[in-house]
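Standup notes
- DV: blocked on the single-chain target, sequence here:
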Amino acid sequence: MKNLFVDCETSKMLKELEFDLEITDVLGAYDKNGNDVNWTTKHFYCWKPLLQQVEQWIFDKHKIHISVNRWITGTFDYMIYEKEKCIIIWDLNRQATLYFNTPTEARIAGIKNAVEYLHRQTAVAVTPINTSANGT
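- DV (later): unblocked, structure below
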């Protein structure tokens, strides 16, 4: 069941991107240390969303599509398409390998990479520019 959910690190980035779930769609949560917690009885830090929930949110809110492809070798990879700009974004982390043994592994990597891309875009957009002469 572990491969059904995004990991805590990705979930924390999603929280910063204002990802949220309807209370009826919540299946779990993480505390600040990345431990699973029962969100109905304990304090929690961020939701523990399903991969499909995140993938759909990325598409609905940001118009980014994640595609998993199977190669003749039997391995899988992913590609990330930014729909409105027709730009293909992939291998943002310069991973040693872009090939995975299962489609689930490829989808998890694609979702993480898409969230990291959005997180970077947001960080760039809100970073203040220092215009003072002495750099303070």
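- Follow-up: The chain has a mean pLDDT of 80.
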